[in-house]
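Renewal narrative, Specific Aim 1. Our central claim is that a sequence can be written position by position from structural information alone. The example that follows is taken directly from our test logs and has not been curated for this report. It begins with the structure tokens describing the chain, in the order in which they were read.
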């Protein structure tokens, strides 16, 4: 199936990810040229030492692109699904859900493939860092749940991000500290099949069979991703009233994703091996300690107008 993602020797998934990435060069109004150059050198050194550890990179990249293209469009968190919506009616709230392909810097240095930005009655500009994988290798997964690297002094379950840009008027642009870091994954075949159908759809209308298959596979991946987010946020978030309200949102989102899976007739097959291993490892690694009073994913974010005023 992976071969279907390539045409004329070019990996279409990699090309689409490249075009969708947050670009560091667009942050000249946030960081100095010397800061950007130093960061670029750090990334190049990290890439030179990188080893692909026991997982299918092609399938992981396919999953990244599926999340980016379908999480919002197919309402994976159920924000628009009855009977209970969680949409805030304030005009300045921003998009209910925004998905961003992380910059190469945050991918390489900060374990982040996709950035989620959530706005609803339960939270404002809540960032979540998604680390996408298709491996069941516990050694590799354990590394994903360890403390952030490079002496950041962050507890498990958190990352700092350097490049965040919502790309909209009144949005924010800059770095973010203490962002919840969540590992999500599915078996390679699911990522590959969904991505193949996405690419096929670009060429022309899908058959009735393929449309039904796409809906079913989308519901399955949507549930697996949302349930992993909900389970890990239970371990990451603290006991404050604000955090408990956020947890209420994620619990409801998981229930809605499960209901959608059942509607597509796939409720008996709700888990896969990758998601199970992620669940085991998150309980082992994130259940050790957690902060109780933090403002998650909203620290040190500045808008371009604020930066200009400094």
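The sequence written for that structure reads:
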């Amino acid at each position: 199936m992976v071969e279907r993602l390539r045409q004329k020797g070019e990996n279409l998934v990699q090309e689409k990810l490249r075009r969708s990435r947050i670009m560091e060069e667009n942050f000249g109004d946030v960081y100095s040229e010397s800061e950007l150059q130093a960061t670029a050198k750090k990334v190049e050194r990290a890439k030179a030492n990188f080893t692909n550890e026991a997982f299918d990179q092609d399938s992981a990249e396919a999953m990244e692109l599926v999340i980016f293209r379908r999480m919002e469009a197919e309402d994976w968190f159920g924000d628009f699904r009855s009977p209970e919506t969680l949409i805030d009616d304030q005009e300045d709230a921003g998009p209910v859900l925004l998905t961003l392909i992380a910059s190469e810097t945050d991918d390489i240095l900060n374990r982040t493939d996709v950035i989620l930005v959530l706005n609803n009655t339960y939270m404002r500009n809540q960032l979540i860092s998604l680390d996408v994988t298709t491996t069941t290798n516990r050694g590799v997964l354990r590394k994903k749940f360890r403390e952030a690297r490079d002496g950041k002094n962050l507890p498990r379950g958190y990352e700092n991000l350097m490049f965040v840009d919502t790309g909209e008027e009144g949005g924010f642009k800059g770095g973010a500290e203490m962002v919840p870091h969540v590992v999500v994954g599915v078996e390679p075949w699911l990522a590959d099949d969904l991505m193949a159908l996405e690419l096929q759809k670009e060429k022309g209308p899908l058959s009735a069979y393929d449309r039904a298959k796409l809906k079913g596979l989308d519901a399955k991946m949507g549930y697996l991703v949302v349930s992993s987010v909900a389970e890990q946020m239970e371990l990451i978030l603290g006991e404050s009233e604000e955090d408990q309200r956020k947890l209420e949102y994620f619990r409801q989102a998981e229930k809605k994703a499960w209901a959608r899976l059942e509607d597509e007739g796939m409720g008996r097959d709700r888990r896969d091996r990758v998601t199970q291993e992620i669940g085991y490892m998150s309980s082992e690694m994130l259940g050790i300690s957690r902060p109780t009073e933090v403002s998650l994913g909203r620290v040190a974010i500045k808008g371009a107008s604020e930066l200009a005023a400094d």
